[in-house]
């Protein structure tokens, strides 16, 4: 069994905020799977079904972000989750660029209050998390609380939607192929891969130029008749 948690705040006024990325990712996945949010338990709304042979429960806490751990802890116990490796928490991240997605096996909360609450109630930070970047306020002195509770617009909204869709696609990878395989796919940075390929080609070109230079020098030496004998 897998328990997939999306973090956010309940209520229409929060639906499109940066902080509700986790809710939206689970909504995208549930819609794709045609699962309904039809159950409430332990201050959370649930949708469930199967992916392959794996039972999967989607969970959106209704506790508000800072108390997310109350719902998550209760449901981890309710479902008797065999291992926290079967738990995946989806949330926003201020320290990632807008729309960037990262999958990690464990780690600190990084200041994300929902993660902080879950770590507190589970007494460990050793569980996977799927983070979607929302960036930081453009002005360094901007209020982060107002920022995360604000609605993105324009190009930022497009980038964030792209990240949400990528994160939703990562969920079935995590379920069916495991954390390591999913990380290899999700954390691949196309731009970094392109830069590495360009460096490899440049190094190959330099080696080829050096080889041609050496061959030219050797040919020059062999063509030199040397000094005539006296």
Question: Which characteristics define this entry?
Answer:
Rossmann fold, about 230 residues, about 45% helix, 7 helices, alpha/beta, 2 domains, seven-stranded mixed beta sheet, about 15% strand, elongated
Summarize the structure.
The protein has 230 residues and is of the alpha/beta class. The protein has helices spanning 21-33, 68-78, 113-122, 144-148, 154-177, 179-186, 190-223, and strands at residues 2-6, 39-41, 44-51, 54-61, 87-93, 101-104, 129-133.
Task: Summarize the SSE layout with pairings.
Blueprint: E1 2-6, H1 21-33, E2 39-41, E3 44-51, E4 54-61, H2 68-78, E5 87-93, E6 101-104, H3 113-122, E7 129-133, H4 144-148, H5 154-177, H6 179-186, H7 190-223
Parallel strand pairs: 1-4, 1-5, 5-7
Antiparallel strand pairs: 2-3, 3-4, 6-7
SS elements, strand count: 7
CATH C-level class of the largest domain is Alpha Beta
Strand order of the largest sheet: 2-3-4-1-5-7-6
List segments where confidence is low: pLDDT < 50 over at least 5 consecutive residues.
none
Let me know the average pLDDT: 91
Count of distinct structural domains? 2
* Class from secondary-structure proportions: alpha/beta
- CATH-derived architecture of the largest domain: 3-Layer(aba) Sandwich
Beta content:
15-25%
Number of helices in the DSSP assignment: 7
How do the helices and strands follow one another from N- to C-terminus?
Answer: EHEEEHEEHEHHHH
- Computed Rg: 26 Å
Q: Which fold name fills CATH's third level, the topology of the largest domain?
A: Rossmann fold
Report the end-to-end length measured between terminal Cα atoms.
94 Å
The biggest sheet, with number of strands, parallel, antiparallel or mixed sense and barrel status, is: 7 strands, mixed
- What's the overall geometry? elongated
How much helical structure, as a percent, in the residues? 40-55%
Name given to the CATH homologous superfamily of the largest domain: Peptidyl-tRNA hydrolase
């Amino acid at each position: 069994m897998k328990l997939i948690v999306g973090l956010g705040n309940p209520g229409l006024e929060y639906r499109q905020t940066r902080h509700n990325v986790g809710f939206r990712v689970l909504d995208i996945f549930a819609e794709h799977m045609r699962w309904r949010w039809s159950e409430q338990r332990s201050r959370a709304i649930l949708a469930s079904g199967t992916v392959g042979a794996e039972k999967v429960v989607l969970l959106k806490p209704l506790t508000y972000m800072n108390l997310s751990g109350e719902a998550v802890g209760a449901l981890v116990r309710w479902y008797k989750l065999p291992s926290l490796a079967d738990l995946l928490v989806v949330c926003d991240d201020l320290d990632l660029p807008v729309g960037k997605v990262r999958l990690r096996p464990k780690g600190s909360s990084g200041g994300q209050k929902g993660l902080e609450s879950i770590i507190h109630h589970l007494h460990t930070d050793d569980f996977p998390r799927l983070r979607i970047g929302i960036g930081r306020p453009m002005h360094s002195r901007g209020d982060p609380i107002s920022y995360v509770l604000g609605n993105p617009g324009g190009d930022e909204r497009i980038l964030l939607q792209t990240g949400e869709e990528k994160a939703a696609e990562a969920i079935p990878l995590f379920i069916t192929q495991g954390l390591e395989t999913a990380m290899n796919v999700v954390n691949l940075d196309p731009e970094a891969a392109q830069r590495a390929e360009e460096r490899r080609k440049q190094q190959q070109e330099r080696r080829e130029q050096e080889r041609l230079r050496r061959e030219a020098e050797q040919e020059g030496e062999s063509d030199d008749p040397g000094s005539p004998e006296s």
